[in-house]
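EI: anyone free to look at a 163-residue chain?
SC: sure, send it
EI:
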Amino acid sequence: MRGLYERHQAAVFAFAMARLGDRMAAADVLHDVMLDVWRQADRFQGRSAVRTWMLTMTRNKSIDAMRKTARTDYGDDGDSLMDDEPTPEAAVAAAQDQEKVRSCVSKLPDRQKTVVHLTFFEGLSYPEAAKVEDVPVGTIKTRIFHAKKALAACLSGYGLQSS
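SC: here you go
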């Protein structure tokens, strides 16, 4: 359990923090997820990676935490759009000042910020992110599409290229 905790606690905490924006609430979610992993390890069926399973639990517990504070927003953006924009990695790589990038990411709507975090920072594929978010893959693509447009606009306001 110690190895599992050491391997995944940062990702679980960061994902909860990205969803909740509150360190104490994210720490509570981390604690609850790890406790459930310990108690319900026999429920892991191996249909996904352990990290995906844990991030799905993190998502669910974060939603519960948001419901408790009445800050919910679960709308869908639609099924899919063609995605020929630069990748988030390209936008970030083009930016020399990480603080400006963080500022732009923090301005994204929560559901876009979440998928950027999952796909870029956690390295999940779109299908894995869709499973964590419990939405169709097309919804993930749409959220990424809109996030990239918003990031490009924001970064160009700082005089940074996003392509």
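EI: The mean pLDDT is 78.
SC: 👍
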